[in-house]
Design goal:
Strands 1-7-6-5-4-3-2 form a seven-stranded antiparallel beta sheet, covered by helices on one side. The protein is of the alpha+beta class. It is globular, with a radius of gyration of 14 Å. The protein has helices at residues 15-23, 25-32, 108-128, and strands spanning 3-11, 37-38, 45-48, 53-61, 65-72, 81-90, 93-103. Helix 1 (15-23) packs across helix 2. A hairpin with an 8-residue loop joins strand 5 (65-72) and strand 6 (81-90).
């Protein structure tokens, strides 16, 4: 049965800067440590973490929202989760609300841990060192 991941995270950077870090392939590669190719157009493809993650952009609102059909490379062809990232200005940074639905139950804990290890911790370090 598919599972759901919900995370609320605070990053000390503006919503525009956080959005750019996710959607600009050079910035994404810089904070994540893996090569990225990212389209900034709805319907476009994103390939991240040296090809370990692929996504199709569904809805993009710069500085506010990223919605993607998102998958891990070893999954069966056509198997995707729905990823929704909302960005909101909060005091001196951004509140990120992540919802990822349709996660394979056996992968949910791994994916949830991966958001912290591959996104939230590196993003915090990236913005602290700018």
């Amino acid at each position: 049965m598919p599972s759901h991941i919900h995370q609320d995270v605070f990053i000390k950077a503006s919503p525009a800067d956080v959005y750019s870090a996710f959607m600009n392939e050079k910035q994404h590669s810089a904070f994540s440590g893996g090569k990225s190719q990212i389209s900034t157009e709805p319907g476009g493809e994103a390939i991240m973490h040296d090809g370990q993650i692929t996504a199709r952009n569904i809805e993009l609102e710069p500085g506010r929202k990223i919605v993607q059909a998102w998958r891990v490379a070893p999954w069966e062809e056509g198997q995707y989760t729905l990823l929704r990232i909302m960005l909101a200005a909060e005091s001196d940074g951004t509140r990120i609300t992540l919802d990822q639905t349709g996660c394979p139950e056996e992968m949910t804990d791994h994916l949830a841990d991966g958001w912290e290890a591959r996104y939230w911790t590196p993003l915090r370090t990236y913005f602290e060192n700018r």
